[in-house]
Write a structure and sequence with these properties.
By secondary structure, the chain is mostly helical. The protein is built from 10 helices and 2 strands, in the order αββααααααααα.
Length: 226
């Protein structure tokens, strides 16, 4: 049952609206019901949700085969824990969040696409998803190259200029996280048009939040943090 709750959390259910889901199953010819509480997590109330799933029927989005694939594949469970463990922490650093997301992306590619590959090839494999998610004003090649440079910069304690910093570092890790979520949804059998219906909301919503926070970053300077 915990893995079903994780799947709800994974695709963004329960941030608003109903917090109780009723399932039906048959024991022989007898119809039985059980309830699942979706928000049974000790996490920050400000969790950022990038998928708009509130008006969708869960069982229309997730087929029985997809549920089976999710529950009984230990690699998906490992990826979930690695990717979302930071959501359960009261404080986490942007650098650690970024490296965490990059590591899960590399692990996914290594497990499901190619065991041996350079990071440059791994990140470029996900280029179509980044193109789908990132604002049109962003040059995809430069963005992917910046992800690679930032990973190298943090891992080797360097201080190069062409890297993500501050709020840009946070949003880079967020975009990587979404790419991983979409990739896993595809692997467990969610239809591409259903995934597209979720990410259409994500693109404008995340960019709007980014621009709003970027504006605040420059509008209200701090005496302590220049």
């Amino acid at each position: 049952m915990d893995r079903i709750k994780d799947l709800f959390y994974f695709i963004g259910f329960s941030d608003e609206g109903s917090d109780i889901y009723t399932f039906v199953y048959y024991n022989g010819r007898i119809k039985k019901y059980f309830e699942l509480f979706g928000w049974n997590y000790n996490i920050k109330p400000s969790r950022f949700t990038y998928f708009k799933t509130y008006n969708l029927n869960f069982l229309e989005l997730i087929s029985p085969n997809s549920i089976y694939e999710w529950i009984f594949n230990e690699e998906y469970q490992k990826l979930f824990k690695l990717l979302f463990e930071k959501h359960f922490l009261k404080i986490h650093h942007r650098e650690l969040s970024f490296i965490n997301s990059v590591y899960v992306l590399e692990r996914f590619h290594r497990k499901f696409i190619a065991e041996k590959s350079s990071f440059d090839k791994r990140i470029k494999y996900f280029r179509p998803l980044f193109e789908q998610l990132l604002p049109e004003r962003i040059d995809i090649n430069q963005y992917l190259n910046k992800i690679e440079q930032t990973r190298h910069n943090i891992s080797h304690f360097e201080d190069k200029s062409n890297v993500f910093k501050g709020i840009d570092l946070y949003y880079a890790s967020l975009y990587i996280e979404i790419v991983i979520v979409i990739s896993i949804l595809e692997k467990i059998g969610i239809k591409s048009e259903q995934i597209l219906s979720l990410t259409t909301f994500s693109k404008e919503h995340i960019d709007g939040m980014y621009l709003h926070n970027k504006n605040l970053e420059y509008t209200f300077p701090s005496e302590m943090f220049k």
